Amino acid sequence: MNTASEDPTELSAQALSNEMNTSSIEQQEGNKEPPNPAPPHDGRLTLTNRILLGIVVGIALGFALGEKAVVLKPIGDIFIRLLKMIIAPLILSAIITGVASLGNLVRLGRLGGKALLWYVCTGTLAITNGLILVNLIRPGAGSPLKILGDTTLEQKYVAPNLVNDVLLKIVPENIFQSLANAEVLAIIFFGALLGASLMALGKDGEPLLKVVQCLNAALMKIVMWIMQVAPFGVCALLAALVGETGTQAFLPLLKYIATVMVGLALHCLLLITVLALVGKRNPLAYVRSVSPALATAFGTASSSATLPVTYECLVEKAGISPRVASFFLPISAMVNSDGTAVYEAVAAVFIAQVVGVELSLTQQVVIFITAMAASIGAPGIPSAGLVTMAIVLKAVRLPVAGISLILPVDRLLDQFRTMTNVLGDCVGAALLERSEEKGDSGVMER
Ligand code: ASP
């Protein structure tokens, strides 16, 4: 597997020609190589290295400038706004083209089934891993930390209702309103329906499909442009964050931080092993090709904001067919949150340990089930996992104000869990791609 071209012009030309020609999408299904050949080395830093440099410089600036580093925040905010600007139209065009190019509804159901299996399996492993670690390490046992008597937290962190706040919102009342509010699940639902109807219309649906494919290619080109400012955006976000938070808050929570980090690291290792053994990919090369997405996830702590970058990395650099990426990624970025799942399990048991509640096995099973719901329900935005934590705490009658214990270090952990969430999406896409390749070579019905 090669590294990808960093030349936006070259990439967009490729993307446009791929997207404009449905048959080229078909050809890519069996193509294990990424679409772009490695560029000749011209001595310039690659985009990934520039983003990594941005991370290092940002952290250093945060320490050097202290609170003054907050003046840099608007640069980071502009970067996030640029990404957010593209999310709704990109998801809509990607899901329409993704579903329409599947060819038939049987295939749509098959892909959906495999994606669901991936979410459930990896979520189960992530929570089990978190629960085992937190029970072994016991980071909260004997801790001098006290829950702040902040009753406003009870009002602020209201457990979302899974039926009213998540399930019902999948079906948009008004698609234009959903687009305006970037309600991702509703956009996916409408886009999938429109894609399926264009597929059913056959030849009559082609003119509109071509327009949507062209729109998708144009949006991808914008994403590539936005990526050129990613190093500055990530640098500014981190400088402001480090300058604002400092390090004092971290000391009493070091054991908790370490438990979450070890959990996330183990889960990433597991994902990478599955990528190599089942996905038959060279893990290093694959991770390198999606590294701009991982770095953006780290900088923004938002898998939704990172979605355009992840999509671009998968299609342009990692050799994932637009068909699989378009269908899998938008849904995955919303519901597949392995890092959040690890964190929910560790944080809930940690809070119980600090307040001196010994959780029974049944209560830990309740934590397992609610942590799964909380991670699925957490949208890909900063601190979403902290908000949905209320579901888990309420289910086992722990005080929601316990969130105040972990609040001061949440952003740092959020950055790492968002990276894990995005890695889970990327590995899932590779596995789905591989299984579809097998299907296309005659094992499964086309
Ligand atoms: N920030 C995470 C994400 O965007 C969600 C979370 O808070 O865990 O994926």
Overview of the structural elements:
The chain has 446 residues and is mostly helical. The protein has a single domain, classed as Orthogonal Bundle (Proton glutamate symport protein), CATH 1.10.3860. It is built from 20 helices and no strands. The two termini are 27 Å apart. Mean pLDDT is 83; it is low at 1-40 and 441-446. The protein binds aspartic acid. The site of aspartic acid (ASP) has 16 residues, from helix 18 and helix 20.
What is this entry, summarized?
The protein has 446 residues and is an all-alpha fold. It is built from 20 helices and no strands.
Present the secondary structure layout:
Layout: H1 8-20, H2 22-29, H3 47-65, H4 73-100, H5 105-137, H6 152-156, H7 162-167, H8 175-180, H9 184-201, H10 206-228, H11 230-245, H12 254-277, H13 283-300, H14 303-317, H15 322-335, H16 338-354, H17 361-377, H18 384-395, H19 403-406, H20 410-443
Helix pairs in contact: 1-2, 1-10, 3-11, 3-13, 4-9, 4-10, 4-11, 4-14, 4-15, 5-12, 5-15, 5-16, 5-17, 5-20, 9-15, 10-14, 11-13, 12-16, 12-20, 13-14, 13-20, 14-15, 14-20, 15-20, 16-17, 16-18, 16-20, 17-18
Aspartic acid (ASP) binds at residues 301-303, 337, 340, 378, 380-385, 414, 417-418, 421.
Bound molecules: aspartic acid
List unreliable stretches of 5+ residues. 1-40, 441-446
Give the tally of β-strands. 0
Spatial extent as radius of gyration: 22 Å
Question: Can you name the CATH architecture?
Answer: Orthogonal Bundle
Give the helix level as a range of percent.
over 70%
Our measurement of the CA-to-CA distance between the termini, rounded to an integer number of angstroms, reads 27 Å
Helix segment tally: 20
Order of helices and strands: HHHHHHHHHHHHHHHHHHHH
Mean pLDDT: 83
The CATH fourth-level homologous superfamily = Sodium:dicarboxylate symporter
CATH topology: Proton glutamate symport protein
Shape assignment = globular
The CATH class is: Mainly Alpha
Largest sheet: none
- Beta-strand portion reads under 5%
How many independent structural domains? 1
Structural class: mainly alpha
